[in-house]
Amino acid sequence: MRVDAHQHFWQPERGDYPWMPTAPEVLRRPYGPHDLEPLLIASDITRTILVQAAPTVAETEYLLGIADSISTVAGVVGWIDFENASERQVLERLAANPLLVGIRPMVQDLADDDWILRPDIAWAADALQELGLTFDALGYPRHAKRFTKFLGRHPDLRSVVDHGMKPAIARGEFDEWARDMRDLAQHTQASCKLSGLMTEAAPGATISDLRPYVDHLVEIFDPARLLWGSDWPVATTAIDYTSWLQICEQLLVELGPEDRTLVFGGNAITFYQVGGD
Predict the structure, then answer these.
(1) Nearest to 270 by CA among 71, 8, 75, 128
(2) Given a cut of 70, is residue 184 above it in pLDDT?
(3) Cis peptide, bond prior to residue 233, ω within 30 of zero
(4) CA distance linking residue 198 with residue 7, whole number of Å
(5) Roughly what angle, to the nearest 10 degrees, separates helices 241-251 and 33-43?
């Protein structure tokens, strides 16, 4: 049972993707289930976790509608406004749909690096925990220490770091990222997604370029806390779906079969509490 723990669908005509006007041209078009289905079949991926790409509740409802209509989506990670405590009622309404499994604020796009530590958003973490939802931590290396502190305040919140916290592989920056990620792994219960790394690497990057970063994530999180994800279609700016899967299989070839089963599906099923069938 293989699960893609991180993929997106979007429709530009919705008009609620603030990042899209400056995105590479390949991303400025609709992506939907019909685009992904042949890639899943070719890669023997059975289920996926569909992740928000717009900071609106309307997009979350759009994604839940897609998930309701196709069997491959096991769960949706959506969005609510953490800055508005009245959104608790919105969150409760969304959570009534069993396909909503988590929430992701788009921290990487916010001007305030300390936003996640603001006391006025603490209610959201408490609400996620009470409703049995997860938290996806989307940020850059400079956010790692902030997420460690945030998750320390909410130790029982099921959380996962997206894209290994986006290390600057293209610039060869490793030591500070590695130290901060080790601290996060040691002092929180967070899991980590093995996803999105090729888009942080230089064009033409090889397995050798990625290996130090992946080896470090395997060491500090252990296979029991790693989830493989495609980050499709964002990843298409650097690599195709099948090639990314194959690279990760090669990078993890020394793991035992049970550990590989966890990384490529089992952990996603457990973390997001979704059925694998």
Answers:
(1) 75
(2) yes
(3) yes
(4) 15
(5) 40
| Residue 5 three-state SS | strand
Q: Is 3 strand, coil or helix?
A: strand
Selected from 3.90.780.10, 1.10.260.40, 1.20.1440.20, 3.20.20.140, the CATH number assigned to the domain covering 3-272 reads: 3.20.20.140
Question: Whose CA is closest to 242, among 5, 14, 18, 40?
Answer: 40
- Containing 36, the helix (H) or strand (E) segment is helix 33-43
Q: pLDDT tens digits for 222-269?
A: 999 999 999 999 999 999 999 999 999 999 999 999 999 999 999 999
Backbone angles phi, psi at 252, to 5 degrees: -110, 15
Q: Which amino acid is at 32?
A: G
Q: How many CB atoms lie within 10 A of CB 88?
A: 16
Residues listed for the chain:
277
CB 82 within 8 A of CB 127: no
pLDDT (tens digit per residue) in 137-156: 999 999 999 999 999 999 99
Contact of 195 with 225, CB cutoff 8 Å: no
Coarse DSSP helix, strand, coil percentages of the chain, rounded to the nearest 5 percent: 50, 15, 35
- Is residue 197 within 8 Å of residue 163, measured between CB atoms? yes
- Cα–Cα–Cα angle for 33, 99, 232, nearest 5°? 35
Closest CA to 77 of 154, 159, 20: 159
**Closest to 81 in 3D by CA, of 97, 65, 58, 99:** 58
Question: In this predicted structure, what is the pLDDT of residue 204?
Answer: 92
User: How many helices, marked H, and strands, marked E, lie in the chain?
Assistant: 10, 8
Give the pLDDT score at 33.
98
pLDDT of residue 275: 79
Do β-strands 3-7 and 47-51 pair in parallel, antiparallel, or remain unpaired? parallel
